[in-house]
Amino acid sequence: MRHILSRPLLTVVGLLLSACTVGASAGKTPPRPAKDRPNVVVIFADDLGYGDLGCYGHPTIRTPRLDQMARQGLRFTSFYVAASVCTPSRAGLLTGRYPIRSGMCHDTRRVLFPDSSGGLPASEVTIAALLRTLGYATGCVGKWHLGHLPEYLPTSRGFDSYFGIPYSNDMDRVAEPKLGKNIFWQPSVKYWNVPLLRDARIVERPADQHTLTKRYTEAAVTFIRKNRERPFFLYLAHTMPHVPLFVSKEFAGKSQRGLYGDVVEELDWSVGQVLDALRDEGLSENTLVIFTSDNGPWLIFGLHGGSAGLLRDGKGSTWEGGVRVPCIMSWPGQIPAGRTTSDIASTLDILPTVARLAGGKAPEDRAIDGLDLAPLLLDGGKSPRDTMFFYRGTRLFAARQGPYKAHFITQPAYGGAKFEEHERPLLYHLEHDPSEKHDIGPDHAAVIAAIRQAVEQHRAKTAPGKNQLDGRLGKKAAR
Ligand code: MG
């Protein structure tokens, strides 16, 4: 039997197979050289924790497409968001600036709500607005949460089109008060009167959250196919796995990790659909794909919240579990396959990185906190980022420099938890102690002094913007 498939026959089979592979994108040669204004796809999960993917060590949630993307690209193990809750994190991603600068953070109203009157100011330059000036088509699909009034929606912030919900899926709550938190354990669409928008128009209310992941995915794939002939930027910001958790029929009850696992496995399917669409359109080698999350897991929701793995605390806190998230970047042929880096990088860095790759520049008329990651991505070099500042609301709680992180203020994520200012900051060596368990401050006065100096320099050049999260609409005006 061994000899039936002789070498010449194997060669023929191989040729046929490769012809079939090529056939998948037959007649669809890349419209331009791979490095000429590459497409950019940012897939942003909501409240997905550092420990929630197979390629980040989760033992039972299956994420084969993300694992494959990691094998074919670059996996980050020290990747940080700009803030540990939704609104300021998204403002940081899309502007490349700490949210304190745009006024998109607040100490009590930590995110925007349906009665909020503010949003991302028109003076801010988003990735979409910037890439649009370079000839990109720009599409936003999913959760926005940077202002739900027409003047703040994606179509007013540089995106050609929008399909999604304007804020979190646990808002517009209409459940009877007696149900309390129980509405989360057996969620029903009718408990949350969240609108679904196409551009600036409500097309469904309440949004059928069971099918959001699927419909976002279809919209993303449609956008890719429609724009295959020109450079594009797709921002696919999933609503899941933010509570209340909803999943489509095909994924319900399928994972070993219960409903939360079902939801993450559907997100993994969604990533696969996007990657397959790029491949089928012959665009894989023209496209930088970035997958990450807006903040850590919402631990107060127990089994409906995710896992920060070995990191401390979760969403809402400036401990590592709140701000360090999974991140995978792939660009076949440009980003070498199969690397993992523990270099520091951030969502703040995406704007200057893609601006440069697209042949443009980050805005020069304002402070940009992001740094160009191209040397790390493309040339196997080091990350240009050595320092990261961690805010809770408008206050700087902690800072990382190299492997050291100093906490000047600590407060557990939720629940009226104790606010503590530390005259001598707590200090952790994150390479030795990623779980932030062993305070080494007493033996490292010089390290603390250096971090203090970096914080002072940062403060001196960081002017807070006019606050956008404290304004409220009158009752009638609220959507
Ligand atoms: Mg979030």
Walk me through what this model shows.
The protein is of the alpha/beta class and 479 residues long. The protein has 12 helices and 15 strands. It has helices at 7-23, 64-72, 86-95, 99-102, 127-132, 182-185, 212-226, 258-280, 320-323, 350-357, 374-378, 445-460; strands spanning 39-45, 74-80, 137-142, 161-164, 196-198, 201-204, 232-237, 287-293, 324-330, 339-341, 345-346, 387-392, 395-401, 404-410, 420-429. Strands 1, 2, 3, 4, 5, 6, 7, 8, 9, 10 and 11 form an 11-stranded mixed β-sheet that branches. A 4-stranded antiparallel β-sheet has the order 12-13-14-15, covered by helices on one side. It is globular and about 60 Å long. Residues 1-26 have low confidence and may be disordered. Magnesium ion is lined by residues 46-47, 86, 242, 294-295. Magnesium ion (MG) binds at residues 46-47, 86, 242, 294-295.
Give me the secondary-structure topology:
Blueprint: H1 7-23, E1 39-45, H2 64-72, E2 74-80, H3 86-95, H4 99-102, H5 127-132, E3 137-142, E4 161-164, H6 182-185, E5 196-198, E6 201-204, H7 212-226, E7 232-237, H8 258-280, E8 287-293, H9 320-323, E9 324-330, E10 339-341, E11 345-346, H10 350-357, H11 374-378, E12 387-392, E13 395-401, E14 404-410, E15 420-429, H12 445-460
Parallel strand pairs: 1-7, 1-8, 2-10, 2-11, 3-4, 3-7
Antiparallel strand pairs: 2-9, 4-5, 5-6, 8-9, 12-13, 13-14, 14-15
